[in-house]
Input
Amino acid sequence: MTQRAATIRHRTSLFEEAVLIVEAEYGSDIGLDDVARRVASSRRQLQRAYAEIGRTTFREHLTKVRMERAAELLATRRLTVREVAQRVGYRQPAQFAKAFRRHHGLAPSAFRSTAGSASLQAAREAA
Output
């Protein structure tokens, strides 16, 4: 079944607006319902936009943005893991460490000391 062009445009617009909000406010307590309200959409419509346009979920996107920013902070700043966790929206450092380990394959402290600088440099060179 082919979607109408207007539906695709609408979902693309919803997804792009949501991405901008997440990228600007990843450090706050942000949720799907809040973002849906702010883009004048229902929760379900925003979920569909994430699935069909972004090929992801809201939660996966938010976590990806948070983990990318956390890696940057760990590699380039002299912040404690607790401070990084708070800056990227985690109240509990243990919860942050678990998510970071799942996403990057290393604990935040190990990432900082071994892979942080090297992986960030490689990412810059690839861009």
Notes: The first helix runs from residue 5 to 25. The radius of gyration is 17 Å. The chain has a mean pLDDT of 91. Residues 5-56 form one domain.
